[in-house]
Every structure is written in structure tokens, then in C-alpha cells.
Amino acid sequence: MSINKILILILIASTVAFFGFNQKPKANRSLVRYGFAGVPQSDYTNRGLVTRTIEINLTSVSIPKDQGEETQIITADVILPFDFEAPLKFKWLLGEEIKLVQGELNGQAQSFKANIPTQITIEVRGFTKIDNRHIGFEIGGERNKKIIHGDSLLASRIDLTFENIVQNVERIKAEQSEYER
User: Fold this and answer.
1) What angle do CA 102, 104, 106 make, to 5 degrees?
2) Distance in angstroms (rounded) separating the CA atoms of residues 122 and 88
3) Which of 5, 14, 30, 80 has a CA-to-CA distance to 101 between 20 and 30 Å?
4) pLDDT tens digits, residue range 3-14?
């Protein structure tokens, strides 16, 4: 055999060995048996496999234009696709220079009815449009020995968020491709 053929065989063998033996065994992640058919999932390193069954909509009653003493009411509408009686733990995450005026940053909520929003509210100061400020909300618990979770983020300057920038770039690309036709 020539040296080129030997090198190719070694390369193929090492590639097969590397990719064949370094894969994690795939666990049975079927959620049908837990009542979560067709539910989106996320794999968090600190939580493991999480089902994304909880929908969260964050809203703000008023966002002041300047750094005044005005406060804002932030509401999380938590929606589950099924009745759920067990408690779910929630946590508000306040960004830089945002102060809690009223409400609880951590707590529990329970007695969720299918597709009916449960509201969790806090009052804050410092959530202004002068700088891009963020408020996050997480809620989660267990159902049938599976972790269920939901989270959301509210920005005071939506025009400066990464998602908005990506949407604008995609819109511009679509317009340019239509123009080039």
C-alpha cells in the first residue's frame, strides 16, 4: 500500500472513532407519556431538559420619558394550556437601576386554569426609555416528574433589542431581494 492510502485509512478510522465514541447516548425524551405531546423544549445546563408549556406576556402600564419619580406597573400574564393546582415558583429579575416599589420579587402562584391568564404584578421605579432597561420574569415547577418552565423579558427600548435589529435586517434583505428581481 502506498503512504497516501495508509494516511487516508488512518484519517477515516480516527474520524469514525472520534465522532462515533464521543456522542452522548440519546435518552428517551418522548413527552407523550407525560402529557406534553408537541410541547417545545429547551435544554438548560443548570436545569436539564425543560418543557416550555408556560406562556408569559409581560406588559408595562407606563414608561416615563425621563428619570422622574413616576412608577410603572409591570404585569406578567401567565398562561398554561391545562389546569394546574400545584404551586409554581416565580422570580422577577430587575435590570440595572430598576428598584422595586411594591410587590414580591420571589414567590409562588397556584390554581391555574387552562388558557386563563393568571396575573402577577410588581411596581417599579427606574424603567425608563432614556436607557435600555430590562425586566425579566421566570416561573416554573414540576408536573408528572417533568420540569415545566416559562420566562420572558421586557425591554424599555424595544428599538434597541437584538430581536428588533434582526427583524429589521431580515426585512431589509427581503426588500433588497425583491428589488433585484
Assistant:
1) 160
2) 17
3) 80
4) 766 767 676 766
